Amino acid sequence: MPKDRREKMEPLIHDQFAGAPSKRALAYVQSKREQGKRVVGAYCGYAPFELIRAMDAVPAVLCAFSNSTIEAAESVLPGNLCPLIKSSYGYIITDTCPFFGLSDAVVAETTCDGKKKMFELIADRKPMFVMDLPQMPDEDGAKRNWAEVIGRLKSFLERTFHTTITEHAIESAIRDTNRKNTMMKKIFDYAAGTPSYLSWQEMYDLTFLAQPASFTDIEPLLESCMEILENRKKNGAYIGKEGAPRILITGCPVGGDATKVFKVIEEAGGVIVAIDNCTGMKSFLDTIEENASDPIQALAERYLKLPCSCMSPNTRRLEQMDRLIELFKPDAVVDVILHACHGYNIESYKVGEHVRRRHKLPFLKIETDYSDGDVRQIATRIETMFEMM
Questions:
Q1: Residue 4 scores a pLDDT above 80
Q2: Where in the chain is the domain with CATH 3.40.50.11900?
Q3: Which helix (H) or strand (E) holds 121?
Q4: The whole model's pTM is what?
Q5: What is 22-164's CATH topology?
Q6: What is the 3-state secondary structure (H, E, C) of 241-285?
Q7: Confidence class of residue 1 from pLDDT cuts 50, 70 and 90?
């Protein structure tokens, strides 16, 4: 019987937040707030955190992943709405979102209609800038329009915080992001190994912290993680059992209660080797042009490449899928779709056809929410897929 060697492993991060990535990120943001830093909340990976860091402020991710506030949200919002929106709004109207409470201003975006209307409902609670995202990225003028929006965000931040964001500061923030992303990709490589030496929970422990944190702040932690992972590789301490099915996750942003899907995959004997979503690897896979003549344009080009399902046509998602499959060598792809996320749900068909035809891999779409009522059904579908592989 193949052995699971995880019991031999040294924890990747030594702190009191084991298995609680949101609490670790909150502790980081709170510590910066206590040091006198301003905090700018954001709901999406399209928000250029480099502008926030360029004015010596701290970004905070505001998306929520708990079922606990959805009932409160449904006193205002329709029941057949994405649980991410309902959870996020529920935390705000119940005054229980610490990230929102710490934020001095909010950056929103037009990635979906539900979020746009939610932003209207909370616009009077904090100074807010809504970024009008071009959703046909290959059209003439898309990059120019996005650069103009980023320029207006810069002006909003300068007015709101009575500061000046210099090109030199933006360039420094770009270099910081690039150094962080480069090291994060090296860490992800340990999941790409056969076998994998990095668990999905550890990926989330790192990505949830690395999104708000500067590289300067977390470089020692990332270096420590690299040492621990290298020791695991030398000692043969890998994730899961030998020969376990390797799973690539794609689809909607997932965290908190929605990680039930990840836990089911793990309990069924699978190993998640890549997480292709906004809470996982997606934000760290590319770098930004340095020393550009116009750093705002450099930011526009980098962020417009993000392959969200709001883009049309979203060919970049298929191209990224090709790269991830080549690197992480999964045995199957699981597409996690949140209820009422129509963009990702419709796009799942194209992604599935691409994975099956081009890569000859099993593909499973799982549509779910933040409740636990469908866990047994999800487990049955996962187990069936594994039996057929």
A1: no
A2: 5-14+169-388
A3: helix 113-122
A4: 0.96
A5: Rossmann fold (3.40.50)
A6: ECCCCEEEEEECCCCHHHHHHHHHHHHCCCEEEEEECCCCCHHHC
A7: very low
